[in-house]
From TrEMBL:
The keyword Lipoprotein does not apply. It comes from Bacillus salacetis. Gene3D superfamilies: ABC transporter type 1, transmembrane domain, P-loop containing nucleotide triphosphate hydrolases. Keywords: ATP-binding, Membrane, Nucleotide-binding, Transmembrane, Transmembrane helix. This is ABC transporter ATP-binding protein.
Length: 596
């Protein structure tokens, strides 16, 4: 897929979707990432060959000059100047060819880095709520930030260092073989030794990198959770407990990081000792050949330079191997998201242009993944268009789960939900949810202005419309107290506002969407009496004429609901108006008595 400029699009999701089940094939994953960038990679490699040519030409020129100087009777000084001119031209071209090499490679790697992060975010948006419930947000952040960075490093090391080193070895051995087959054979012996060294350390490095990566993700998740819990921790004087938990995780991380560092150090030192020893053997070997008259004296310098180049290349591969192992682990980590088959619960395509709001729950059963205990058990309910339905009951009765199922976050394990005669399985959930307004118990605001929070997700909102919903949500007094009115920044998660102010902003955000269905989950549970009164006024304005689902613990707040559904153990045990249920003196009456 390409954009208008002819460049590959940032959306890799469909490409990865067509390759599910291949998450263990790391190089196949890398291939998918760089598909469409092979032209830039080939051009980058071409300019690398040109820019790297001095490494191969200088030893030949050096040998020539030594041989010319050691046998003056067979040569003249003009040959020295010719060799100098050649080497200066080869050296001088390095500037332009290096810039071209890096330019083409950077175009590919930077695009892939941005595209991969974009695809990760897209994929996270499309994965099921169950998937997100199973993973800490900090772990997902680690995958998007740290692991993608490691993959970019892997790509660059593979293209900059690994491929360059292999090319260097091939050219050096090729030139040497052309000059002297015995010396080339000696050079070739280095390769199996290097391979044995790499394979000897491969499993240990991979295991320690995997352990370290997993511990980093755990730490990232714990830090995110700790920061979120700071108000609760402080309120209960539990700072030392949180510090102790974090210190324990850091101790684990330190231990695994230390073991990884020591494995990498032993790997690098072993390589250096082995190859330095080989270089000394190369020197004595070529010196003996020159001593016996089989090669010229200047050739010793050339072979020594080429062997040094081979050793440096092999050493580069060895030194970069830990980075490759790290990147390998990160590809697997990212693949867990890219190739996950835990897609959103519904994949329907039907678009309802207008919602009447007639819902039907038909023998609905539901249990969360990993447990056989049913949260909803043979739940049946019919909701008329424009009707307001309140759910009450003890904690764990299944009230909020019903709301989550209306949103489409969860799918019944048995039974079905029907909207305006259309089963949920057939609905385009994205289009459907655009017609909903959800006011949760814990109001979610972002660190922008009040105006931005109210108009979130709605384009081309006029000032008149903003002012209308501000008035409807009883926000005038809040706006008037703010230093910059609607354009006042409210801090992360609306931290500069009270609970009532945040909830009224959430209601204004719901109103401006002009929703066709409303969901209110404990929208006034944490408010004082005055704030609750104001919020209730805003809610009455919000739900007028719209199908509304309300979850409430304060039974006094749902007196005006068309029907109240009393839930117990995932079942609907009573249904009726406030007055009807009070007259029955059943479950609802008992709940009301307990609150008096």
């Amino acid at each position: 897929m390409k954009n208008k400029q002819g460049e590959p699009s940032f959306d890799y999701e469909s490409m990865f979707k067509n390759n599910r089940g291949k998450k263990e094939k790391v190089f196949h994953t890398l291939y998918l990432m760089y598909k469409g960038h092979f032209k830039n990679i080939v051009l980058s490699f071409f300019f690398f060959i040109i820019k790297h040519s001095p490494v191969w030409v200088i030893p030949i020129v050096t040998a020539n000059m030594i041989n010319i100087a050691s046998e003056p009777e067979q040569h003249n000084t003009s040959e020295l100047w010719i060799n100098l001119a050649v080497v200066l031209v080869v050296i001088g071209q390095n500037i332009l060819s290096q810039v071209a090499h890096v330019s083409f490679l950077s175009k590919a790697s930077r695009h892939v880095e941005a595209a991969l992060r974009s695809t990760m975010v897209r994929r996270l948006q499309h994965l099921s709520i169950s998937y997100h419930s199973d993973l800490r947000s900090g772990r997902l952040q680690s995958k998007v930030l740290r692991d993608v960075e490691n993959i970019e490093t892997l790509s660059k090391q593979f293209m900059f260092t690994f491929s360059a080193a292999l090319t260097n070895v091939a050219v050096a051995i090729g030139v040497t073989a052309y000059k002297n087959g015995w010396v080339a054979l000696f050079f070739i012996l280095v390769i199996p030794v290097a391979l044995l060294l790499v394979f000897g350390f491969k499993k240990s490095l991979q295991t320690k990198n995997r352990d370290f990566r997993t511990e980093i993700e755990t730490m990232s998740g714990q830090v995110a959770e700790t920061v979120t819990m700071i108000p609760v921790t402080r309120a209960h004087g539990l700072e030392d407990l949180e510090i102790k938990k974090t210190d324990h995780t850091l101790k684990q991380l330190k231990g695994k990081g230390y073991r990884l560092d020591m494995a990498e150090a032993l790997f690098g030192a072993s390589g250096w000792v082995v190859f330095q020893s080989f270089q000394m053997f190369c020197l004595i070997f070529t010196a003996l050949l020159a001593y016996n008259g089989e090669i010229m004296v200047g050739d010793i310098a050339m072979y020594q330079a080429y062997f040094t180049s081979i050793l440096m290349s092999v050493n580069q591969i060895i030194n970069v191997f830990p980075q490759l192992a790290k990147g390998y682990e990160s590809v697997i980590s990212v693949s867990e998201v890219l190739f996950s088959d835990e897609d959103a619960e519904y994949q329907g395509k039907k678009h309802l242009s207008w919602l009447n709001g007639e819902y039907s729950f038909e023998n609905v059963h539901f249990s969360y993944k990993g447990t056989s205990k049913h949260v909803l058990n043979n739940f049946n309910l019919s909701v008329k268009p424009g009707e307001s339905i309140a759910f009450v009951g003890e904690s764990g009765a299944g009230k909020s789960t019903v709301l989550s199922m209306v949103i489409g976050f969860y799918r019944p394990t048995e039974g079905r939900i029907v909207l305006d005669g259309t089963p949920f399985e057939e609905l385009d959930m994205k289009k459907y949810r655009q017609k909903l307004a959800v006011v949760p118990q814990n109001t979610v605001l972002f660190s922008g202005t009040i105006r931005e929070n109210i108009a979130y997700g709605v384009e081309n909102v006029s000032e008149e419309e903003i002012q209308r919903v501000v008035k409807m949500a009883n926000l005038q007094d809040v706006i008037s107290e703010m230093p910059e009115g609607l354009d006042t920044r409210i801090g992360e998660h609306g931290g500069k506002l009270s609970g009532g102010q945040r909830q009224r902003i959430a209601i204004a955000r719901a109103l401006i969407r002009n929703p066709e269905v409303i969901l209110l989950d404990e929208a006034t549970s944490a408010l004082d009496n005055e704030s609750e009164y104001r919020v209730q006024q805003a809610i009455q304005e919000l739900i007028r004429g719209r199908t509304t689902f309300i979850v409430a613990h304060r039974l006094s707040t749902i007196r005006d609901a068309d029907r109240i559904v009393v839930m117990k153990a995932g079942k609907c045990v009573e249904v009726g108006t406030y007055e009807e249920l009070m007259e029955k003196q059943g479950h609802f009456h008992k709940l009301k008595q307990m609150q008096n």
